């Protein structure tokens, strides 16, 4: 089976939820990179140990991104600071219906059903 990548324009019913999650993602990645720079090495992290109000699949992506950025910053001798909001959806956290694609978000500390 061939893998394809698609881009979807999201028109959410509650845009503030996605904005908040994007900001949480940026804040957490920047925080992890800053902690790694202070200690000199990137720590062993899991979605359980990362304190962020995000679904676990997104936390795992966040850890991979932070580790990658930290490795690049060690090579380039400068640390980028993320500013652009992102939200990753992968095969672990989306469902396709007849006329919609849905994915989990965290509202008030939990993922609604």
Structure description:
- This protein has helices at 15-39, 56-76, and strands at residues 95-96, 101-102.
- The protein has 113 residues and is mostly helical.
- The protein has a domain at 25-102.
- A two-stranded antiparallel sheet has the order 1-2.
- β1 (95-96) and β2 form a beta hairpin.
- α1 (15-39) packs across α2 (56-76).
- The radius of gyration is 16 Å and the shape is globular.
Q: Tell me the number of helical segments per DSSP (H or I, 4 or more residues long).
A: 2
Principal-axes geometry comes out as globular
Number of strands: 2
Round the mean pLDDT to the nearest integer and report it.
79
Beta-sheet strand percentage?
A: under 5%
In whole angstroms, how far apart are the ends?
30 Å
Share of helical residues: 40-55%
- H and E string: HHEE
The oligomerization state is: single chain
Residue stretches low in confidence (pLDDT < 50, at least 5 long) are: none
Spatial strand order of the main sheet: 1-2
Largest sheet: 2 strands, antiparallel
- Overall SS class: mainly alpha
Radius of gyration: 16 Å
């Amino acid at each position: 089976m061939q893998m394809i990548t698609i881009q979807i324009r999201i028109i959410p019913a509650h845009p503030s939820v996605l904005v908040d999650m994007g900001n949480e993602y940026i804040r957490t990645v920047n925080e992890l990179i800053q902690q790694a720079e202070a200690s000199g090495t990137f720590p062993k992290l899991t979605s359980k140990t990362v304190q962020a109000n995000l679904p676990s699949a997104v936390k795992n992506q966040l850890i991979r991104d932070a580790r990658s950025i930290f490795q690049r910053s060690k090579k380039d001798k400068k640390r980028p600071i993320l500013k652009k909001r992102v939200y990753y959806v992968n095969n672990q956290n989306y469902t396709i219906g007849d006329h919609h694609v849905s994915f989990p978000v965290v509202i008030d500390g939990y993922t609604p059903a």
